[in-house]
Amino acid sequence: MFQNLISVINRILESLHDLVIVWLVVILAIVLIIRYYVLTTEIFTELVPDSVVLEIAWTLIPIVILVSIAVPRILLLCNQDSVYWFPKITIKVISNQWNWQRDRLDLLDHLLDSEKLDELSSYEYPLTIPFIGIVRVLLTRRDVLHSLGIPSLGIKIDSNPGRLNCVTFEPGVLGVLTGSCYELCGRGHRAMPIFLKVI
Question: Could you give the CA distance from residue 2 to residue 128 in angstroms, rounded to a whole number?
Answer without folding.
Answer: 24
